[in-house]
Amino acid sequence: GEGLPSDDPRQTSLHVVSKEAARLTQLVDNMLLLSRLEMPDFALDRRMVNLEAVAEDAILQLSDLAEERGISLNLERAGRLPRIPADQSRLKQVFINLLDNGIKYNRQGGSVTVRLSADEQQVTAHVIDTGEGIPAQDIPFVFDKMYRVERRDRYVEGSGLGLSIARRIVEQHGGTIAVDSQMGR
Known about the structure:
Blueprint: H1 9-37, E1 47-49, H2 51-69, E2 72-78, E3 84-86, H3 88-104, E4 111-118, E5 123-129, H4 162-172
Parallel strand pairs: 2-4
Antiparallel strand pairs: 1-3, 4-5
């Protein structure tokens, strides 16, 4: 199969080593990105950005992973959205991190929906998933570095840095990020 372990133990070992190397590379990349974002002289590359196009790009980038996990990705827009002054690549990273979480902590046949809306003061993006929810005791910590909600039924890969990175980027844009969840929803 494509990238799947075979009956050959050497191939299986190589597959495990390759996956672990990719995981470690992602961890290092995320740690470097977070440390750059926290530097006092870090500057956003602000331009007038179409938020809907940014969300569409992120959805497209994660469509294979979602399909592999049996998760549908959706984009909804409520009304007209203004262009906003933002760093397009950084905002895309926020959507990727939130969508990635929504996919990983979901269930087969579930969905992740990005819902965009705007009023005179602000543009709002909700990323809504059909996962099992976050225990109340974990909610205050989900944006902390290296914090991961424990899953008893299966291991969920990741560095525990994705939501910290998302929070830092959103705050640098003058925005706020929050989570609302309850178990079973």
